Amino acid sequence: MSTTEPYYELYKDGLGQWRWRFRGANHEIVASGEAYYNKVDCRYAISLVSTSGTRKVYEVN
Fold this sequence. Notes:
The chain has 61 residues and is an alpha+beta fold. The chain has one domain (7-60): 2-Layer Sandwich (Double Stranded RNA Binding Domain). 18% of the residues lie in helices and 34% in strands. It has one helix at residues 39-49, and strands spanning 7-12, 18-23, 29-32, 56-60. A 4-stranded mixed beta sheet has the order 3-2-1-4, with helices on one face.
């Protein structure tokens, strides 16, 4: 992933639940959230903690 701005990652953990993490411009993890059964709930959690609606959300495998 080649980005120079902070961004969110949305991913499935080893148990098949959805999680998010926020990475800084240097790609280091700054924050992360709990597990969700539904992808839409995980996206909603990102919207609740996001201070800027302009941050990108990438889904990773």
